[in-house]
Amino acid sequence: MKLHRITTTAIAGLFAATALVACGSDSDGSSTTVADGTDGVTIRIGTTDAAKEAWTVFEEKAADEGITLDIVPFSDYSTPNEALAQDQLDVNLFQHLKFLAEYNVGSGAELTPVGSSEIVPLALFWKDHDSIDGIEGESVAIPNDPSNQGRAINVLVQAGLVTLKTPGMVTPAPVDIDEANSKVSVIPVDAAQAPTAYQEGRPAIINNSFLDRAGIDPNLAVFEDDPESEEAEPYINVFVTKAEDKDDANIARLVELWHDPEVLAAVDRDSEGTSVAVDRPAAELQEILDRLEADQANS
């Protein structure tokens, strides 16, 4: 089945249009909803990973269920939530819970997680080393963006290399590190520059997307955070809808289809074996989101 795909440019044009047509409306202007269990429905879903194999397999699985996926590809991380909030999407899948919390608090939106997909561990790399033995005294390059900096510091906490002044912080900053009781120091850099630091011989925490671009084997990591730990919960990737659509049965079916063995196998190939499937109930995801939003609002 050949499905219509909308570019981010087209989405921007839709936002600017004065005669904007609401998502799912009929030609006569009456509102329609996705009927539970009805073949032939179309669901608009946004992602930043549309080119990956998993999305092709996912699309085919949905088609087998009578659901047409109108996959909307995005090249940035801000537009998919705006598109969802403005009814240009029914659901998106591109972000972890912490990113969603930051968006909701910053925008006043109430976008809601309805299912989980996977978590991609964040890892420490050290050229020509296969463990963290001997790393004491080194300066570790970490991403400087808010979403990843705190997680990177907590990777070092889990590795026993950094001690925080206040244990258990979800998003610590370099100022929160107890330098006197830590084994390494940190140097925040632009996430895209972390691979360069690694190639120069400095230990570095590198996001998966930049590993791929730099041609670094993710299996060379000397340490990574534990996807089963409480510290990793903010980084569970989720399906997200508007609050009023959280009980949509067809979207719930999409969440189930993402966990089909063939889709999961494709996700594993896409991530070179680094992603870990996560299947958490929507209620648990919402509880985590609530905690993160409270923390974000008080920061």
UniProtKB/TrEMBL annotation:
Q: Where in the cell is it found?
A: Membrane
Instruction: Identify the keywords attached in UniProt to this record, alphabetized.
Output: Lipoprotein, Membrane, Palmitate, Signal
Q: Name one GO cellular component term.
A: membrane
Q: Which residues form the signal peptide?
A: 1-21
A Pfam family that this protein carries is Lipoprotein_9
Q: Please state the protein's primary subcellular location.
A: membrane
Record-linked InterPro entries:
Lipoprotein_NlpA
Ranges in coiled-coil conformation: none
User: How does the record classify its membrane topology?
Assistant: Lipid-anchor
Question: Could you tell me the superkingdom of the organism this chain comes from?
Answer: Bacteria
Spell out the family assignment given in the record's similarity comment.
Belongs to the NlpA lipoprotein family.
PANTHER family on file: D-METHIONINE-BINDING LIPOPROTEIN METQ, LIPOPROTEIN
**What is the recorded name of this protein?**
ABC transporter periplasmic component
